[in-house]
Amino acid sequence: MKKIHIDRIKELSDLVKLNLTSEELKTLSVDLNDILDSFDKLNSLEINVFNEFDDDLKDKNITRKDIKHKSWDKSILLSNAPNHDGNELNIEYVFGDD
Amino acid sequence: MTDDLLGKSIAYLSKLLRNNKISSVELVDYYFDRIEKFDKQIHAFLCTDKKLAMKQSKESDNKIKDGDQGPLTGIPYMLKDNICTNNFPTTAGSQILNDFYSNYDATVVKKLNIEGAVLLGKGNLDEFAMGSSTENSSFGPTKNPWDYDYVPGGSSGGPAAAISAGFAAFSLGSDTGGSIRQPASLCGVTGLKPSYGVVSRYGLIAFGSSLDQIGPFTNNVEDSALILNAIKGRDENDPTSRDFDKDLFLDQIEDFKNLKIGIPKEYFPETLDKEIKNKITDVIDLLIEHGAEVEEVSLPHTEYALGVYYILAPSEASSNLARYDGVKYGFSDNQVSSMWERIENSRSKGFGIEVKRRIMLGTYALSSGYYDEYYGKAEQVRQLIKQELNDVFKKVDCLITPTSPTTAFKLGERTKDPMAMYASDIMTIPANIAGIPGISIPGGKVNGLPVGVQLLGSYFSERKLLSIANRIQRITDWHLDRPNLD
Q: Which residue among A15, A43, A92 places its CB closest to the CB of B339?
């Protein structure tokens, strides 16, 4: 039995913002089902003891001190953006047409 | 300049520099001659910058002249192109980052800059390090220097092929499921994946954040230790990085007495190529001959490692790759009328099919109703695999296995079968799942193609692991073998 249907793949692709071609949908439908079938082995495994937060080094949480420091210059942050006016990112309308 | 420098160690090159027998500028010239002559066929580099390399090498020559020489001063190297650099583009092998320039150098690059190492260029890889053959690169595959009809392995195929072909003295790659060790094996060079946390990943383009680790490709184990010394250590920009031994040095082991080597039987299945098995057995016999105690051990959960990896890594990747939206940086499709359309079109045109496959797989594994069945279960089995390895390292000093179940395969042979491609990493994945160190060293050839021997050690046992691997190279000469490119 198929674990994941082509309709579900389409739904997921919408979620992750991938506009898959019909060819890609067909290929992924086969591939994903093959891959998911191979995971059945994991679910056949009975796990009795499970230490969720196993930590070999018994580390304490490592965080850096909360020190104020100068952030990146805006022009540097925007330098790789495809559309910007030097001060902010330009994007198309998010809601509606205009 | 002759080919006398081919495959020479960093210590040897450093001595030549110190004694004024050669300059760093001449070394850069030597490597660029080889690159210009042979890389058209091999395609190990995605980009080079001779002018910049010359500038760096002149600075290093001045340092050497002033008596300020470290072990890597003036030594030319290559970086996998998923490690961010200020002066070179960083593409991660993907169209979505074509022409992307990072605003900063990765911590490993900063460290190598301080050492005075000279960057020649960036190496080819499977897109976002997802693959085992470098065929998933958006910029065309790399070929194996031993035979151009064969893959170099992946995902760090460019950096592995570069060392095999003598294009640089060392290179850096990243290893999420075997992406250093497997190509090292297929190209006949030494490749080290350090323990998780030994090397900062700040500036490494994230794939599977709980698995990724940066490590070196070198001509021998001594060089690997040198590079690890230079790039290891705590970095406040990577909270997973840790302090490591101040100076990692190799113990000069005279023999293998007092060493217990484990042979995990699950890594030697009936289906394993007999000739590869024989090569690994040759090494085991050598260890016994030199005094090692060898014991067969069992790691019964190894068979689940591949499944665990292909849930965890795509899940983490699906989250990490959400940042590529065509808005902030990278490829952006301009023929759109809304922001959503821009994001969707940019991602759809910018990502290749393997990346899409893993994003979809990861999103499915993390989706409501399936999280416990897939991701939750995989995390549980991961703990079992870790525990099993921890237990076995209480009994043995290291494990010896093949690095890859096969030698290099032909270009195109596995591209239509993702499961066959994924199985290429079956021997290397457990080390990433457990976070332990692993090294692949050359162990001879089968039908003219290199075979890799993998040594695995307990968490943070790099010194012991490298010392053992170094001793093996001192009594063998497989690591000196280089392909004839002419």
A: A92
List the pLDDT tens digit at each of the 98 positions of chain A: 778 999 999 999 999 999 999 999 999 999 999 899 888 888 888 776 555 555 555 666 667 788 888 888 998 989 999 999 988 898 888 876 65
Interchain CB contact of A11 with B (< 8 Å) = no
Mutation target to probe the A interface, by most A beta carbons within 10 A, among B364, B387, B429 is B364
Domain map of chain B by residue range? 1-486
Interface list for A 39-68 with B (CB within 8 A): 39, 41-43, 45, 47, 50-52, 54, 56-57, 59, 62-64
Answer whether residue A80 is part of any domain: no
In a domain, A85, yes or no: no
B198 vs A: CB within 8 A: no
> Looking at the annotation, which residues of B are catalytic?
80, 155, 179
Q: Does B371 touch chain A (CB under 8 A)?
A: no
pLDDT for A47 equals 78
**Which residue ranges of chain B lie beneath pLDDT 50?**
none
The pLDDT, as a whole number, for residue B222 is 96
Answer yes or no: is A24 within a domain: yes
A92 falls within a domain? no
As given in the structure block, the two tokens for residue B71 are: 């072990």
Return the beta strands (E) in B53-168 as ranges: 76-80, 118-123
Site of tokens 């086969």: A30
CATH number for the domain running over B1-486: 3.90.1300.10
Give the model's pLDDT for residue B359: 98
- Domain carrying residue A11: 6-43
Q: What is the pLDDT of residue A71?
A: 86
What does the DSSP 8-state code read for residue B66?
Answer: T
Total domains present in chain A:
1
Q: What residues of A are in contact with residue B434 (Cβ under 8 Å)?
A: none
Q: Which residues contact B145 (CB under 8 A, 6 or more apart)?
A: B38, B42, B152, B161, B164, B165, B187, B483, B485
- Give contacts of B 427-466 with A, CB under 8 A: 435, 459-460
What ipTM was reported for this prediction?
Answer: 0.89
Can you give the pLDDT at residue A49? 56
Nearest chain B alpha carbon to A88:
B328
Cis amide linkage into residue B210, ω under 30° from 0:
no
Residue listed under structure tokens 């699950």: B266
**Residue A79, Cβ density class (10 Å: 0-12 exposed, 13-18 middle, ≥19 buried):** middle
